[in-house]
Amino acid sequence: MNFKTTLVLALVLIVGIVAVVLLDKKDEQRAEQKELDEKLLNIEKENVSEIMLEPAGIHAVRDSNDWILTDPVDARADNDAINSLLGIFDYSKQIRVISSDPSEYPVYGLQNPKAEMVLVHDGQSDTLYLGDDNPTGSYVFARQSGSPDVFLTSTAFKTQATKTLFDLRNKNVVPFDRMALNHLTIRNENGRFVFEKQAGAWELVEPIAYPVDETEMDEIINNLYKGKAKEFVAESPDDLSQFGLENPDYTAELLLGDEKAQKRLLIGKSLGDQRYAKDSSRDPVFVVDKAFMDKFQFDLTAVRKKEITDATSSQIRRFVLEHSGMTIEAELDSVANWNVLQPEKRPAKSWEAKSITAAIDRLKVQEFADDNPASLATYGLANPQVKAQFFDREKLLLELHIGNIKDDLVYAKKADQNNVFLIDDNILDTLTPDLEKLAESPEADTTAAPAMLQ
Which of 147, 144, 146 is nearest to 129 (CA)? Predict the structure, then answer.
């Protein structure tokens, strides 16, 4: 094959490749155009500035990144619900054009449309009209302003176009920035509880100063943050007393940020297993359900921290146990072996020593007995039956005193606090070992002379 022939073949190959590429590109462009032609509206939801829905009479206006309802009420919109509504234009399509004859509109329920959706975007307005379902109920008839075509589209359009005011309005019982919340006061049937966020952690400051149960605190805040109105019963009531909101049964006061901006939730009379409620900064009265109220009706025990210490067994290098008139001390050496130091030096049984240190991980308050005891003797804590100290070498991590038994619990307190509480009484078996249980047997005396052979 000569050079000229080779060149011709190469040119033919190149032309073929270019032709294939161009055809593929045209196919791709046709597919893209077809997809655009099938879209209900070729819009970007970020460019929509107003939405109107009929016959609900809803008018929503974009305010920066938020949506505001201006009709039929002035209220914050539910941004997620609005974004879901606009999301239909990402996937809903014109399935098939059925007719282009306006005289046939009554056949498809479009002479007097069931619903209308008006969208203002990019300096223009588009209206979509919703008619009847098709005979199978799988699609809905619709048309668009500026075109006589009647087409089928998915029922997702119907779902969004017929949203109600309740669907689209903000239903948060008390909208707030969770990260800015630093002070919370809740009054319920069990009393008044004041919480403050200090150095990033929540503390109970009233009715007593005490660390909080972090899980319970998260649930209380989540309940307020995610709580939703189940129904709006009055938009601008003149008389709040009919709802029990002039002197509410329950209140939540929130302070936000360095400026201590205040939010206040009022909860009034019962309505079955629900209650009337109101955000003091907004006019409407709404209803909250039983699930919301259940989380609101905590007591002092529920919000207090149950862990007796933040120390863990992995931190413990030494412990001292005083019980039954004796003192047992054991220490972890540099090669991770436990050794008894008192009442006499012996190697410790590692599993026994570890069971004692592991007890610290299980220590939890079962009941709070007395925060200001007049006499510790009442609880057997003036002269406790057990004193247990746990150290990280020289630093004392916890000193626990254990007193009288009550049913299957036992009174206890930390040495540096007044609060008396009850813990499981099985801690007694763990923290009252005798020497023989904890320590290895003494080694045989190997210094004695061997017996004479007879």
Answer: 144
CB atoms under 10 Å from CB of 443, counted, come to 8
CB atoms within 10 A of CB 114: 19
Give the position of tokens 């023989």.
436
- Structural contact between residues 42 and 93, judged by C-beta atoms closer than 8 angstroms: no
Q: What are phi and psi of 380, to 5 degrees?
A: 70, 25
Q: What is the pLDDT of residues 200-227, one digit of tens each?
A: 899 999 999 999 999 999 999 999 999 9
Neighbouring-strand partners of residue 138: none
Cβ atoms of residues 304 and 313 within 8 Å: no
| pTM passes above 0.70 | yes
CA count, 13 A, side-chain hemisphere, 346:
18
d(CA 161, CA 174) in angstroms, rounded, equals 28
Domains in the chain, ordered, with CATH? 45-168 (3.30.1490), 178-303 (2.60.40), 313-438 (no CATH)
Are the CB atoms for 43 and 122 separated by under 8 Å? Answer: yes
- Assigned token pair, 2: 């000569």
Residue type, 343: P
Other CB atoms within 10 A of residue 243 CB: 23
- Token code pair at residue 41: 């509206």
Q: Considering only CA atoms, which of 211, 170, 207, 215 is closest in space to residue 186?
A: 207
Helix (H) or strand (E) holding 6: helix 3-38
